[in-house]
Amino acid sequence: MYSRTRSAVCMGIEGREVFVETDITRGLPGIGMTGLASTMVMESRERIRNAIINSGYEFPKGRITVNLTPASLRKNSSCLDLPIAAGILASEGCIRSRMLDKWGIIGELALDGRVLGVEGALPMILHMNDIGLKGIIVPEANRSEASVAGGNNYAVTSLRECAMLLSMDPEEAASKAGSGELVCKVKPYNAGDIMQAGHDMPEGDPDFADIAGQENAKRAVVIAAAGRHGLLMVGSPGCGKTMIAGRMSGVMPAMTDRELLETAIVRSVAGRGSDSIYMKYKRPFRAPHHTIGKAGMVGGGSYPVPGEITLAHNGVLFLDEICEFKREVIESLRIPLEEKQITHFRKGEAFTFPCNFQVVMAANPCPCGFLGDPDRECTCTQADLERYRRKLSGPIMDRIDMKITMEKVGYSELTGGSKGLTTRDMRDQVEKALAFACERGRRIFNSDIPDHELEKHCRLGHEETKFMSRAYKSFVMSPRGYNRTLKVARTIADLDESEDIKTEHLAEALGYRLQE
After folding, report:
1. Hey, is 172 helix, strand or coil?
2. Best CA proximity match to 388, nearest among 362, 367, 411
3. Are residues 159 and 13 in the same domain?
4. Are 80 and 7 in contact (CB under 8 A)?
5. Closest to 121 (Cα-Cα) out of 79, 73, 74
6. Residue 185 lies inside a defined structural domain of this protein
7. Exposed (0-12), middle (13-18) or buried (19+): which is 52, by Cβ within 10 Å?
8. Closest C-alpha among 515, 516, 507 to residue 485
C-alpha cells in the first residue's frame, strides 16, 4: 500500500520541503531508500525498525520502498526518521492515510520509540508554515523553537503520540487542544512580554561599574555600540580590554522582533535552539580562542554549518589577542565585514549565512606587552614588532572604524571608589541616540548605512567639508576610510542629539580612526 508524508530538511539556514513516499509490496523483507539520502538517513532504517516494534506495532513483513523527493535535493538529517516511520505505519494501515497530507512531521527516533530533538527545527517549521500545512508535529525537545515559529504546532515525545495525532484532522486536534484534551499543543510566546521582561540587565551580569578608570574607553564603547562600529583596543596586559569587551553586549540595545527571529534561526541551525538567550533579548557574544581555524571562524563543511561570525550575528564577535590569530583567519573576515553575509558553495548548492556582527578586537602593543609602558621596559626587537603587527594587514585595519589606546590604570583610580559610568548609564546613552536617529528616518545602525545614502544622512556644512577635505589629503585616507569616518561622526552627533554633523564630531571620529 502507498502513502505519502510531508516533512522538511534544513539547507544552510533555510527549510526545504521533502515528501516521503512509502510503498509496501511483496518481496524479501527490508527497507530500500532512494532520493539522494546521506549516510545519516540510510542508517535510520535500523532505528525505525526497532522504534516501530518497541512502540507496540507489528513491523511489515513485505518489501518497503521509501522515496524522498525532490530527488535532486540532498538529504542529510535525522529529522526524517519520524515521517518515514509514520509513512510505514500508514502503508500498513495503522494510521488513516487520508490525514497525512495535512501534517508536517520532523523528528529523530530512538530505538525505544522516543522522539528526539533535531537541529535546524526552527527554519523547517517556518517553511512548513509558509507552504500552508495545517498542523506540524515536532519533538518535545524543540518545543521552544516551535513556540517562536508560531502556527499550529504539536510537540510529541513518542512515535505512538505522533500516530495518535496523525489519525486526526489538524482542525480536530486544534479543537481538542482548546478543550485541554491535547497538552502537546505548543503555545506561542508573546514577543512583547519577553521584550519587557528582558529589557533590564539580569541580576549578576558583569557591569561597567566594575572597571576602574578607563572612562575614555567607555566613551568609545558607547559610540561603537550606538552605531555598531568595529573597535580595536590596544593596551598593556591587565588594563581592562577583555573586561570591557565582555560587557559590550549589555550596552547594546534590545533586539527587534526581526533580529530575535534571525538569531533564533542561527542558534537552531547550530543545535542551540533550546538555549533561552534569544528569549531574553540579550545579544549574542562570541569569543573564539586564537587557535581557531578558518572553517571554525567562517563556517563550512560538506554540508555547511555556521561559523563563529554567523553565531555572532546581531551581536558581538570578540577577538582577544588578535595578533595571535592565524593571518588567514583574520583575512577571511574581509568580505563578511563588508557584505554582512557569507556564501559557501557545495556540490552545486549555494548556502548563505548571515553575519551582521560587531567586531571587537583587543591586542597588546607588542609581543611582550609593555611597549610604551612608563613602568616596565619593552624587551621586543624591531623584527619582533614588525612580525607581530604584520598580522593585521592594511585592508583589515581599513575596515575597523575605531581604534583606541588604553593606558594602565593608576593606583588612585583603582582604589578611589568612584564607579564612573555604569552599564545602565551607557545603555541609556545608546538607546537615546538610536531613538534620536529613528525619529529622523534612520532605522538601521549607522555602520549599515549604504554608501549611496551617505549624502542624505551625513550631509556636511561648508566648514565641515573644508575640514574633511584637508584631513582626507593630510592623512591619505581611502574612500572606504572616509565613508566610515562620516558614519562614526554621525553616531557621535546622534549621541549629542545634533541634526548636523559638526567639526567637533568629525574631529573625534578622526581621532578614533587615526590612532596607531
Report:
1. helix
2. 367
3. yes
4. yes
5. 79
6. no
7. buried
8. 507
CATH number at residue 112: 3.30.230.10
Scored b (16 or more CB within 10 A) or e, 245-276 reads bbbbbbbbbbbeeebbbbbbbbbbbbeebeee
Instruction: Tell me: do 161 and 227 sit in the same domain.
Output: no
The DSSP H or E segment spanning 264 is helix 257-269
Burial class (CB in 10 A: 0-12, 13-18, 19+), 301: exposed
**Residue 241 reports pLDDT greater than 50:** yes
Which residue is associated with the grid cell 589577542?
321
Q: How many structural domains does the chain have?
A: 3
Look at residue 354 and tell me whether its pLDDT is greater than 70.
Answer: yes
Name residues whose C-beta falls within 8 Å of residue 434's C-beta, 6 or more positions apart in sequence: 226, 253, 494
Pair 20, 103 in one domain: yes
What amino acid occupies position 163? A
**Ordered DSSP codes for 38-63:** -HHHHTHHHHHHHHHHHTTPPPPSSE
Q: What is the pLDDT of residues 199-209, one digit of tens each?
A: 444 555 788 88
275 pLDDT band, cuts 50/70/90, is low
Give the residue numbers spanning the domain of 89: 2-178
Q: Are residue 40 and residue 81 in the same domain, yes or no?
A: yes
Burial class (CB in 10 A: 0-12, 13-18, 19+), 402: buried
Q: The whole model's pTM is what?
A: 0.90
